Amino acid sequence: MKVTVIYNPAAGGGREALLYRFVAELERLGATVCQYHTKGPHDATDYLKGLADQGDCVVAVGGDGTTNEVLNGLAAGVALGVFATGTANVLGKELELPKKPEQAAQVVVQGKSVSVTPARLNGRRFLMMCGVGYDAWVVNGVNLGIKERFGKLAYVQSMLGQIGRYGQSHYRVEVDGRPLDCFSAIITNGRHYGGSFVLSREANILRPQVQVLLFQKQGVRFLLRCLIALLFGRMERVDGVASLRAQRVHIRCENQNEPIQADGDPAGSLPAEIEVESAPVRMRVPALFDS
Ligand SMILES: Nc1ncnc2c1ncn2[C@@H]1O[C@H](COP(=O)(O)OP(=O)(O)OP(=O)(O)O)[C@@H](O)[C@H]1O
Fold it and tell me: What is the ipTM metric for this complex?
């Protein structure tokens, strides 16, 4: 098995020792490994696009942002693996990927493949989620210095800082052609959010559809109710939260420069055209993963 390992030294504050253990185990299991350390944003995508032979599998070593950039450079027919060493690692939770480097390497070589269908946001692929409104303001408001030093606490700080803004922007959404309104929206492929919290019990990453969560009531009290419901995995039970399956979503806003987030990183601004892709990507998961 030929494996290309893409390591982001900035993810999770840097995990070089874990990378070496991961690569050593891949080689012990008989894999031929080609390693690349990214130099900055989008480098993973550019590097992979310029690579003549990506091998049998490309493994992203980093967080959800790194996996997103690898996904955007992945050649057709090549499997995608993840060794989650980032801050939140939502995809790792979703696919029950091990945190120990030796076990993560075993998943790549000895695990199984499942089909996960990415979606495109304004032409760029994402695997887990994208969002507008509060969700996107929080991602865009994260202080990178604090994130490097204190990890997830940077998100908590940003969440507190953005609460007062909720409800000030109004979005017009078309979900498979159906017109709807909201004050925030999250379009998710998987169930998890912000780490191990369950955002949607309706979502299924193995199904070629996204789950669209629309936050349709205004006011900070409603937002706080949603955040508490998230802690208990009951977001879809909150009165004012709509949850719909879709293939295609369009989002507009009259305000200028309304940001979008995708897979936990800033992803431009509205309008947003989101469409589930026609072909899945094969992802390496543990042999015991329930598919
Ligand atoms: N050498 C580098 N220096 C700085 N940033 C980089 C480098 N290589 C890649 N990046 C950028 O780092 C960003 C953050 O990485 P990533 O999202 O994987 O880690 P994280 O934020 O710690 O984890 P998570 O998204 O799971 O919370 C990526 O979007 C990528 O553009």
Answer: 0.96
